[in-house]
Amino acid sequence: MSSSRLPKKLSTRILEALASSIRMEILRLLHEEGPLSYSELMDRLNLDPVKHAGRFAYHLKKIQSANLITLSKEGRKYQLTDLGWKIYELTREIEEHALRAGTRLLVRTSRTTIEEFDRNRIVESLVREAQIPQEIAERIARKAEERLLDLRVKYLTAPLIREFVNAILIEEGMEEYRHKLTRLGLPVYDVKKSFQDIGARGGIAKDVKDRAGEAVLREYVLLDILPRRVADSHLSGYIDIRKPGSWILHPDVIIHDIEEILARHASMLTLPSEESRLKLYIAYLSKFIRDVCYEIHEEQVVEYFNVYLAPYVTGVRDIEIEDELISFLIYLSDLKPTVSLGLELGIPSFMEEKRALGKKIGYGDLYDEAYRLLRSLLRCYERLMSFNRFRRCLPRLIVKLRGGDIDEDILLHIHRIISLGGEVTFSNLAKTNGITSSEGIWIEADKGLPEYALLRSLWIGGVSVNIPRASYESHGRENIFARRLERICRDAVDSLLFRYSAVSSNISSNLLPTLFGGVSPYSSIKNCKYGLNLVGLLEAAMLFTDSENFIEDDVLDYTWKIIDYLREIVRSIEQETRIKITLSSIADIDASTRLANMDQLYYGKAKEYKHLYRPFYASGSLIPMDIDVSTINRIRIEAEFHRKIDGALAVIPLSEDDIEDVEAMKDLTIEAYENYDLRWYSYGFKFTYCTLCRRHFNGFIEVCPECRSSRDLVRYVKIGASYMSEYVLPDGVRNALLKSNSSH
């Protein structure tokens, strides 16, 4: 045989191999899916192994003889040869060229394939996704095809076709159908900007992914979950739904029950020593908290921490206790959502007779153990906070003040932690029973029930209510103001009810297994609490009283009047819905900034609204954080505010001199508690962190005293319960806080 005839025979065999739709389909499968076995290929081609075995073997032999595929000896799987790969790619190019030459449309699909345009695909999509009648769908599809044929583009894409279809639906007056076809996602520009923004703020790659997911779910909530009226209320700035993308996934706050956690996970084990029991129980508690991080949005409150663990420190040396607590704190550091530890300065009276888990004694007999555990925990905090890495990432502390004598030595230790930048919330329980989150969310015990009956309860979340918007729209008429407030509050409550429904559905689908899974779930959503978060109370009162001073008596009196209006509205809604609604003032800088900016856009040019120069509304503390007012006067006003609402956190600003005088700070805490009955409060001060030498300095500095750097400094301020860097604050807030005369 002459060598000149060989290429001709090979090319003939190749053309014969391509002259069958089944053989072409085999090449496509191996090209797209990689190596496949004999049975896998038959299965993909929907061929019967008995009926079609001979026919299939014939086709394989044809392709093999053309040297387009080969059978691997190791895995006994067929795969494309280099020649087979090139031949298949060539056939695709020929097909696409022929289609283009015939003025046909090619579409790059979401399945990463290129296919010939098929109008019936549009019809199927309209009927399936938007429930459009078949006849109308066919008419819309024909119009879309006519317009697409006029385009001179190399390839169409599925999103581009969808845009054309949506435009035709709008032209035809079919807005509701178009709404159902909305594709969720991010523009390319926004994705690129996410990489830049998160990198500049010290984030990581996972943060980019989380932001993209948040954006998609946010659109889903506003387009599909909420009624149009409620979604429009959020988009128009009457209410603010915090992080809508995470909003339908899980509740905001869980109150943990250490006894229940330990009973579920460790009751079956027999341990040789108390030291082993303490180590194991802390390990179980740590793991449970970590698991719950995926099922709670804002905060996990671990109540009665030093009381419930007191039975297991008997006979354990202090150094061993501290080793376990150090490991516990490091394990939970930087955890999101926030973890807060509820600390008792003694044994609460309602727990004295309660029998300790696994013991034959009541907690009232464990005062010394609880005290020792508390001192050990505070020593661990102080040790860890001396290392800059842990200064802002340890769990928060919630210190309960319950009346009677207060151990000033322990209180002094707590204030040393505050002076180092520790995030500590004080909860004044002298006149009531209840549980507080670090941000001031308040869950009160029902009459006749002990406080620990609140354990394992949930706070479904809160929606921020724009109080100044009702003022602007009422033009000074109180009857209209009250009606506007009611409409805003009803929209907020409706959004919370839809959130409850979405989270309940997630529970039914077992998407939250740690909290709600199993025959005997750890928690239940049935009796969860709902919150209306009040934003801009003082600003609304200033508008009605035509005042420019935040703390004038007339302004404060009208603020209390607004709260009375809100109380009446809430009572009416509660009777209709049979749910419990709280009026709270929880710090939400994103909501207060967004709502203020929208109001400035709508009303900023009107002369009568002269107070709109501020870049944010007050939230959390009643008195805005950048307003200069004496400490005692601030405490007095915030205490009066706390007596009228169901939860808040007053942040008391401290100067550099204040923060260094720990004894005076401790005395101020006792005075706020005893003389003013301030319910929920925290301290905040300004500090600067040098990223080059990794040192913290009180106050704002221009040059690092250690390394002399001026470009590597990051300034921090207290917003609610947490310290926030200037880079995560909205621009207007950052400028106002960093330039304000307030020591905060």
Mean pLDDT comes to 85
What are the low-pLDDT stretches, counting only 5+ consecutive residues below 50? 1-6
Count of distinct structural domains? 5
Structural class: alpha/beta
Percent range for β-strand residues: 5-15%
User: What distance lies between the first and last C-alpha atoms, to the nearest angstrom?
Assistant: 95 Å
Number of helices: 29
How helix-rich are the residues, as a percent range? Answer: 40-55%
Q: Write down the overall geometry.
A: globular
State the major sheet: 11 strands, mixed
Number of E strands: 22
Alpha-carbon Rg, integer: 33 Å
Oligomer: single chain
SSE inventory with pairings:
Blueprint: H1 6-18, H2 21-33, H3 38-44, H4 53-65, E1 69-71, E2 78-80, H5 82-101, E3 106-108, E4 114-116, H6 119-130, H7 134-149, E5 156-157, H8 158-171, H9 175-180, H10 188-200, H11 205-225, H12 228-235, E6 239-240, H13 244-247, E7 253-256, H14 258-266, H15 274-292, E8 299-302, H16 305-308, H17 318-332, E9 338-344, H18 367-385, E10 396-401, H19 408-419, E11 424-428, E12 434-436, E13 442-444, E14 458-466, H20 467-474, H21 478-508, H22 513-516, E15 529-535, H23 537-545, H24 553-577, E16 581-584, H25 589-603, H26 631-642, E17 650-653, H27 656-660, H28 662-674, E18 680-684, E19 687-690, E20 695-698, E21 713-719, E22 722-725, H29 731-739
Parallel strand pairs: 3-5, 7-8, 8-9, 9-10, 10-11, 14-15, 15-16, 17-18
Antiparallel strand pairs: 1-2, 3-4, 6-14, 7-14, 11-18, 12-13, 19-20, 19-21, 21-22
Helix pairs in contact: 1-4, 6-7, 7-8, 10-11, 12-21, 14-15, 15-17, 17-18, 18-19, 19-28, 20-21, 20-23, 21-24, 23-24
